[in-house]
Design a protein that fits this description.
The chain has 609 residues and is an alpha+beta fold. Among the domains are: 161 residues, de novo design (two linked rop proteins) (Up-down Bundle); 251 residues, Ribosomal Protein S5, domain 2, CATH 3.30.230.10. It is built from 19 helices and 17 strands. The strands form five sheets. The chain has a seven-stranded mixed sheet with strand order 4-17-5-6-9-7-8, with helices on both faces. The protein is globular and about 65 Å long. It starts with 13 loop residues before the first helix and ends in a 6-residue tail after the last strand. This is Galactokinase. Keywords: ATP-binding, Carbohydrate metabolism, Galactose metabolism, Kinase, Lipid biosynthesis, Lipid metabolism, Nucleotide-binding, Steroid biosynthesis, Steroid metabolism, Sterol biosynthesis, Sterol metabolism, Transferase. Pathway: Carbohydrate metabolism; galactose metabolism. It catalyses: alpha-D-galactose + ATP = alpha-D-galactose 1-phosphate + ADP + H(+).
Length: 609
């Protein structure tokens, strides 16, 4: 449904399959009898975590499909931040969304979409909902452990043109028709949804329309909470087009889900859609297709402002603020280079992305049991499994004050704490080969079946051993690098900008360290990613690394403007020319990324621009 890739893309890499061979039985049982297991899971979780204070504002998300039983997993913070407050903007012209250099191609693309919509449905569209992909500058694989990240939106996006149909008063269902501009790859779908019922989504089936259903599901849940039991959803006719590469690490799924949720909210009479609400429902909605995302992708897609990166924090609440790069000489450019190795999180989750989510949550619980006083419970939080390394972080320093942190700034205290956590993790998690279920269960004081219910009942993972040491070290060290990057960016900007090479290199070194950690500790790189990074560095890049989930996809490179041509030529000579690529792939292999704008609604004028 986006450019690049096909329905059978994202084949599992053979080496990874050999490393991970065991499928958990409890996950299969849960899919057969989800409500039977929900209360027992909540009970087990209460032995490890403590529920949030009653004064916290919470919103229930039915992660286990039950309307009535609220488990500890169901609790997500719904706090508001002034920095994030405000509605999704309504654009009156494409110039409100795209930069001048992108307008010609985007005008042609949107006009084609609207023409195709009228051909498909026999009448013009009334509204277009839009959400972009993103590139992550630094902070890889730490958002779902609730540590801060620094992404920025890109020009590539998902756009959904739609019209609204009334649901008859006596109808027990409402109808949605979803079509794709690339109809040869992604056939149209029509589905009836019962009034008041959940949207059925089979996460085991790799179906493009599931992403729309995910956004629909989250939006309907919010609308029902707002309007009560008498709410009757509108029918919709939708045509979508996406140009974010699938499996490229640029958050194609988050763009599609966020735009879908926005479209459903607008279609059902929401004249203004709150950015925070849209972000929160998109985060949880994407989990319905079997991907336990952390929140960075959706935050960047919804909140980004043109010309700035976005510093996103998840604890104690979801906050975001724009971040601007200082003037440098040579000027800095960000290049995005595709590896053309596809890694689809929904397909490869059991051995890649979702496995890392489980390993990080396990590491938090393990460290808590090993290092905190007996009986210490972790705070329930908004991470995918309700247990996070950040939760351990909070619990550890509630019991272990840093004497030298008195009078330190919040940033200095956070850095000091992370350095301590890195040290204690190395001492507590000594196995480099990974831990078995039996070993982890013993430390946590639960049985192996109970361990699987707590950590693996929401999704399938295949692993004999869980590399808790490596995953925890990556998270704590990467969280520290984010703070260091922000400090260099905002507190140590050069006063003399005649030559900022040394300053540029300091930023680049942190990006390079992230790539090293992703390759060695998190094991989410790929030989092709490593090759693109090597070539870029040898030809002038200050910092090069993977972006997104990894295991393929895209790379991001901080390159001086006067070296951009040299880096692109080297990639063509040493990498792209050695692969069988279409002309379209060659043209889109490398792009100079400029910070783009976030989600927007576009009200069409008589069906046109």
């Amino acid at each position: 449904f986006f450019s690049q890739g096909s329905p059978n893309e994202g084949q599992l890499r053979g080496s990874s399959l050999r490393q991970h061979t065991r499928t958990t039985s409890s996950a299969a049982k849960l899919r057969e009898h989800p409500q039977k297991h929900q209360s027992s899971i909540a009970g087990l979780l209460r032995r490890i975590v403590k529920p949030p204070a009653s004064s916290d504002r919470l919103v229930q998300h039915r992660l286990f499909g039950s309307k009535d039983t609220q488990s500890a997993f169901d609790l997500e913070r719904n706090t508001r931040s002034p920095a994030m407050a405000g509605p999704v903007p309504t654009a009156s012209a494409l110039a409100d969304i795209y930069t001048d250099d992108a307008l010609p191609i985007q005008t042609k693309r949107w006009s084609s979409l609207l023409s195709q919509f009228e051909s498909e449905y026999g009448h013009p569209a009334s509204v277009v909902a839009r959400s972009p992909g993103r590139v992550n500058i630094i902070g890889e694989h730490i958002d779902y452990s609730l540590y801060s990240v620094l992404p920025m939106a890109i020009t590539a996006d998902a756009i959904l043109a739609f019209s609204i149909t009334d649901t008859p008063a006596d109808s027990e269902t409402f109808t949605l028709r979803v079509a794709n501009a690339q109809s040869d790859k992604y056939p149209s779908r029509t589905f009836e949804v019962p009034i008041g019922a959940d949207v059925p989504i089979d996460s085991k089936v790799h179906e493009w329309s599931n992403y729309f259903k995910s956004g629909l599901s989250g939006a309907l849940e919010l609308l029902r909470r707002k309007h009560g039991k008498d709410f009757r959803p509108k029918g919709m006719k939708i045509l979508m087009d996406g140009n974010v590469p699938v499996g490229g690490g640029l958050s194609s799924s988050a763009a599609f889900v966020s735009a879908s949720a926005l479209a459903v909210m607008l279609a059902n009479g929401e004249k203004t859609v709150d950015k925070t609400e849209l972000t929160e429902l998109a985060i949880v909605s994407e989990r319905a297709v079997g991907v336990n995302s952390g929140g960075m992708d959706q935050s960047a897609s919804v909140f980004s402002q043109r010309g700035s990166a976005l510093f996103v924090s998840f604890s104690p609440s979801l906050t975001a603020r724009p971040v601007f790069f200082p003037t440098t000489n040579p000027e800095l450019s960000f290049l995005i280079a595709q590896s053309f190795v596809t890694s689809n999180k929904q397909v490869t989750g059991p051995i890649h992305y979702n496995l890392r989510v489980v390993e990080c949550s396990m590491a938090g619980a393990f460290l808590n049991a090993a290092l905190n006083p007996a009986g210490t419970k972790l705070p329930t939080d908004a991470s995918p499994l309700g247990i996070s390394l950040h939760g351990f972080h909070e619990a550890y320093f509630a019991n272990n004050k840093l004497p030298h942190a008195e009078g330190a700034s919040a940033e200095e205290a956070a850095e000091a704490q992370l350095r301590v956590l890195i040290d204690v993790t190395k001492k507590a998690l000594t196995s480099t080969e990974g831990y078995t279920r039996e070993e982890i269960a013993k430390v946590l004081g639960v049985s192996v079946p109970e361990l699987e219910q707590i950590f693996m009942s929401k999704l399938s993972v295949r692993a004999d051993r869980f590399k808790l040491r490596q995953r925890a070290l990556h998270v704590f060290e990467e969280a520290l690098r984010v703070l260091q990057f922000m400090k260099v960016l905002e507190q140590e900007a050069p006063k003399d900008t005649s030559d900022t090479t040394a300053y540029n290199k300091r930023l680049g070194d942190l990006l390079n360290a992230t790539q090293d950690s992703c390759r060695d500790l998190y094991e989410c790189s790929a030989p092709e990613i490593d090759e693109l990074c090597r070539i870029a560095r040898e030809n002038g890049s200050y910092g090069s690394r993977l972006t997104g989930a990894g295991w393929g996809g895209c790379t991001v490179h901080m390159v001086p403007a006067d070296k951009v041509a040299a880096v692109k030529e080297a990639w063509e000579r040493e990498y792209y020319s050695k692969r069988e690529l279409t002309e379209e792939q060659k043209e889109g292999a490398v792009v100079v990324s400029r910070p783009g704008s976030g989600s927007a609604a576009y009200l069409l004028k008589s069906g046109g621009l």
